Amino acid sequence: MEKIYCDREQEHEATIQRVKEDVMLSKDVEKISKIFHMLADAGRLKIVLALLKGDMCVYHLTEICGGTQSGVSHQLRVLKDNKIVKSKRLGKNVEYSIADEHIREIVEMGKAHLLCSANQE
Amino acid sequence: MEKIYCDREQEHEATIQRVKEDVMLSKDVEKISKIFHMLADAGRLKIVLALLKGDMCVYHLTEICGGTQSGVSHQLRVLKDNKIVKSKRLGKNVEYSIADEHIREIVEMGKAHLLCSANQE
DNA sequence: GGAAGATATGAATATATGTTCATATCTTCA
DNA sequence: TGAAGATATGAACATATATTCATATCTTCC
Question: What is the pTM of this model?
Answer without folding.
Answer: 0.90
